[in-house]
Amino acid sequence: MMKSKKFKFSEEQKERIRLAVADLEAASSGEIVPYYTAQSDDYEVARWKMAAVFGFLGALILGLASYFWLLPFSLTPFEDALFFILLMFLGFIIPLVYPAVSRSMVDSTIMKQKVFDRATTVFLEEEIFKTRDRTGVLIYISALEREVVVLADSGINKKVKPEDWQKIVNLVIAGIKANKVDEGLVNAIQACKKLLLDNGFTVRPDDKNELPDNLRLED
Fold first, then answer.
1. How far is Cα 59 from Cα 163, in angstroms, rounded to an integer?
2. 139 and 150 in contact (C-beta within 8 Å)?
3. What is the pLDDT of residues 119-137, one digit of tens each?
4. Exposed, middle or buried, 151 (CB in 10 Å: 0-12/13-18/19+)?
5. How do beta strands 147-152 and 136-142 pair?
6. Residues 6+ apart with CB under 8 A from 170
7. With contact defined as beta carbons under 8 Å apart, do 35 and 141 qualify?
8. Which residue blocks in 10-161 are alpha helix, DSSP H?
């Protein structure tokens, strides 16, 4: 599993990734779009769950304190309500300040689906489907959820097997585990180049660069 800490790309690292994409596209008809985001959803449900947990803990604390006479003073109903509201507010904002908390409040299956849905949206937003031979490929990394998704257009998926893309995903994850996201991406892009060439996706004489080569970054 990859670390959820957001990776900061230097200009040199971004350039390495861009050059790897350019190298692939100079030899093959593929168009690669590397995309990195901090998280794929804001997970509002996690904030409400954390607020409910803090509210429950507040009730438990007050109940035990009252039962065992632990408070040297009694609280008015208004003060009780204010205490609950403050605790619930604290619980609500914690996932905003520390997004990684969301992982403990949201089912992993839901997170996987959110990542896939966002990757699909990015595929459309970046117009990866518009290449002449439908040979676009998205390498999508979502840091919070610790997920990598590779989506290829129909022209490529006619020949490339799903398990081949998993090998690309594994290369990205290996780089992230070592806190070298740029290296993982470069290795994955180079592996994509070989995969495309092995399946006959060679560059055309009149080939044009249909998609920008740069790494896309989303906060």
1. 51
2. yes
3. 999 999 999 999 999 999 9
4. buried
5. antiparallel
6. none
7. yes
8. 11-27, 44-67, 77-97, 102-105, 108-125, 154-157
